[in-house]
Amino acid sequence: LPTLFTLHAARWRDRGGGVLAEGAVQDFHRRAAPALAAAGLVRFTLLLLRGQPVAALYGVKAKGRFHHYIG
What we know:
Helix content: 25-40%
Distance between the termini: 11 Å
Number of helices: 2
Oligomer: single chain
Radius of gyration: 13 Å
Number of strands: 3
Structural class: alpha+beta
């Protein structure tokens, strides 16, 4: 999550901050993601370029389907 928050902030810095700019939203995901992970539902994917994260995908997999939340 910290990497996702950092990438998202960099992308939306000059456009008003984006959906993850609010501390309350980040706090929600910090609380929700471990519970989703414990249930085997959360999916995070990072794309690395020369060892550095350049993109992230965050979503939920349930009942054979992937539901994209944000990338």
